[in-house]
Amino acid sequence: MILVGEKKRPLATETVEAQPPKKPIEEEDPETMLKDIRAELENEKAKSEDYLRRMQYLQADFENYRKRVEKEMSVQYLQADFENYRKRVEKEMSDNRQFGNQRLLSDLILVNDELELALREAEESRESPTIVEGVGMVYKRLQSIMSKEGVEKIHSLGSKFNPDLHDAALRVVSDKEEGTIVEEIRQGYTLKGKVLRPSIVKVAENSAEPESKSEKSSLEEIGDHE
Fold first, then answer.
1. Minimal CA–CA distance to 133: which of 142, 124, 123, 125?
2. DSSP code per residue over 42-65
3. For residues 167 and 201, is the Cβ–Cβ distance under 8 A?
């Protein structure tokens, strides 16, 4: 049964409108592509140059830093060398001054010996009191100068013989302990603890030793006669 008023439905084929055909993709112009590639290359080149410039700045900063460090180290080395040089020069000057003082003080000791001898002879011969007093004053002044320079007498009499301080001129028979200094022939002196001139002394020797030596020589003579 056909209803009146119902619209006739169009067929599917009738409703689909014909679509216009798609245009084919146009190929890019080679000139344009070349321009784009060149633009990209220029861009990359600019970036590379920027990186290179930054690296050069960093390299320059590092080189300046290295030079500054080397300079500071060089200054430190120079300061150390100068300090060592200064100490060495001061030591040499001190040694030279001390050596010069030793030589001068050794000469003064000889003068002191002569003054002691002159003063002793003047007192024994009962010379004019004025002469004795004058020699005595010079002797005391010389003793004061030597003392200020650090010169001290070696006190030997009654002490044990010490080869660092004494020179033994003779061994004498004595009832004192073996090796005791019984007489001082020449006064010795030290300079700030260092021996400037050793004392010349006589050292005690027990009487038993000479007797044993004489007995031994007697026995050797008897043996020779036999």
1. 123
2. HHHHHHHHHHHHHHHHHHHHHHHH
3. yes
Q: How confident is the model at residue 215 (pLDDT cuts 50, 70, 90)?
A: very low
**Cα separation of 120 and 139, whole Å?**
11
The three-state secondary structure class of 115 is helix
Report the predicted TM-score, pTM, of the whole model to 2 decimal places: 0.51
- How far, in Å, CA of 193 to CA of 203, rounded? 23
Q: What are phi and psi of 162, to 5 degrees?
A: -130, 115
Would you state the pLDDT for residue 3? Answer: 47
- Percent of the chain clearing pLDDT 70 (strictly above): 77
Domain boundary assignment for the chain: 40-149, 151-219
- Tell me the helix, strand and coil percentages in the chain, rounded to 5: 60, 15, 25
| 151-219 fold | Nucleotide Exchange Factor Grpe; Chain A, domain 2 (2.30.22)
Amino acid identity, residue 129? P
